[in-house]
Q: What sequence folds into this?
């Protein structure tokens, strides 16, 4: 597209700029129809490699996962409170209560707790944190293990039987 400020011909109107853009796109489309691509073969291979790399970055698969025998992380005071009161809240709300209903009701109860009641749950969480730190110091195994899928049975059918 010609530059508006730096050229020796008279200035184009806005409509003529659109025509110039359209002409440029039309020429590129003609080139694609004739040659299959506007890029050379090496350029198109580079573009394909970049696209594949970008797709793999979009949803990266985790290479490692937490070891199943490693100590579990400590719980917060809210989680301790939630685990303790979850059954009571379910019974209070009835059999058709959803998970979100139970969570909302328990969160309401948590917000209404006084500082003394919260101090109890803070102590419970502190004990759990001590447990984790003790287990962490005595644990000698690996913290992360490779995330490998179990191999499929080669004799298993690829499609379900109909």
A:
């Amino acid at each position: 597209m010609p530059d508006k400020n730096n050229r020796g011909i008279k200035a184009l109107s806005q409509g003529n700029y659109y025509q110039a853009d359209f002409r440029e796109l039309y020429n590129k489309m003609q080139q694609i129809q004739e040659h299959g691509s506007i890029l050379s073969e090496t350029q198109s291979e580079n573009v394909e490699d970049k696209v594949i790399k970008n797709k793999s970055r979009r949803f990266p698969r985790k290479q490692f996962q937490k070891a199943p025998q490693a100590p579990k992380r400590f719980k917060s005071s809210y989680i301790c409170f939630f685990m303790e009161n979850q059954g009571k809240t379910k019974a209070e709300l009835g059999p058709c209560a959803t998970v979100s209903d139970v969570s909302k009701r328990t969160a309401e109860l948590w917000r209404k707790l006084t500082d003394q009641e919260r101090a109890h749950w803070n102590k419970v969480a502190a004990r759990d944190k001590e447990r984790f730190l003790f287990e962490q110091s005595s644990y000698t195994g690996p913290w992360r293990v490779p995330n490998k899928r179990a191999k499929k049975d080669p004799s298993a059918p690829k499609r379900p039987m109909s």
